[in-house]
Amino acid sequence: MLTAHEFLHRLPKMEMHLHLEGSIRPGTAADLAHQNNVKLPPHDRVEDLYHYNDLKEFLDIYTAVSDSVLSADDFRRITYEMLESCAANTARYVEFFFSPQVHFVHGVTFDTMIDGVIAGMDDAKADFGVDSRIIPGVNRELGPKAGEELLDMILARKEERLIGIGLDFLEAPFPPEPYADLFARARKAGLKVTAHAGESGPAAHIAGSIDALGVRRIDHGYHVVTDEALMRRCRDEGILFTCCPSTAAVTSPWTVLDAEHPIRRMADFGLKVTINSDDPPMFSTDLGEEYRKAHDLLGFSPDMLRRSILDGIEGSWLDDGEKRTLATAWAAEIDALIAEFQPIPSRLA
Q: Smallest Cα–Cα separation from 246: which of 278, 217, 216?
């Protein structure tokens, strides 16, 4: 019989809400900062670098650490290390964000970034078997014009693993509606779209992302619980929410992870919810720990985790044939693990 730890570890996982720059290990951040003559925020030990009390403080650190990533090899290293951690936590497919606009100010070209990221993806695929795709994030604080310029670069690159765009950075006071034209152009060009919404911002940002941006996927989305009509709409329309327990306890108003937390309430309501790690080393976590918190603190049962994983496959940006193949194989694998974790009593017992 499996222990809870063994069961959670062996579950096949998909990571759908993970930031490349937020996955930089503190030791790597220190190495790259020293190598590239970048000054990091004050800290006594490298382990103390990632300390913050709210979303704004976190984004300040996130940007400072990102400033130390300059060369294609820097991008290769951080991508490889991120995917190495994913594989160690039995993630087999990863759709990850990265933030090109934070690097432009240091003269790093988009092609330099993508060359390094692709090299890291290829190396991780060869070494760990983990498959991955890239989602450049549009910094909503910089305005739609800067986002349009980024989209031009994405489309010019013609890299099939650049599968979509996201909208991220500080929600307030930056609602999604001004980005409607940008997202319409991205969709017309064949890119998938998603948006960070309802984390520190109101439920209206979730509705606005669905209506104005045409997204079928919301990153975070915890404020949806404040609007029951919107919850019903998202349930009926099959909107997927990529949730992250550890960061939710810091960057949203709901700081206690228990059965009353929005992530659990969203799942209980019938919304499609996946478990992800967001910015793992920056919050002293990894994907396995997020599953542990979902199970132990939020009270996700094995069957709820099964549903979450399969909903993630359905909401991923793989093609339909790949989704069907994964769903069939993973469902059988998860069912076997559940049976070993919670054996069905024999009728003869």
A: 278
- Each residue of 21-35: b (16+ CB within 10 Å) or e? bbbbbbebbbbbbee
- For residue 41, pLDDT beyond 80: no
Q: What is the mean pLDDT of the chain?
A: 95
CA 15, 23, 98 angle in degrees (round to 5)?
A: 75
Q: How many CA atoms lie within 13 A of 186 on its CB side?
A: 31
Catalytic residue among 15, 81, 171, 199: 199
- Residue in the structure block whose two tokens are 């940002």: 205
Active site residue 199: yes
Q: Coil, strand, or helix at residue 53?
A: coil
Residue-wise pLDDT tens digits, 70-114: 999 999 999 999 999 999 999 999 999 999 999 999 999 999 999
Q: Cα(273)–Cα(267) distance, rounded to whole angstroms? A: 6
Q: What is d(CA 94, CA 81) in angstroms, rounded to the nearest whole number?
A: 13
Query: What are the structural domains, with CATH classification, of the chain?
Result: 4-341 (3.20.20.140)
Tell me the C-alpha distance between 158 and 29, whole Å.
Answer: 30
Residue 247 and residue 290: Cα distance in Å, rounded? 10
DSSP 8-state code for residue 179:
G
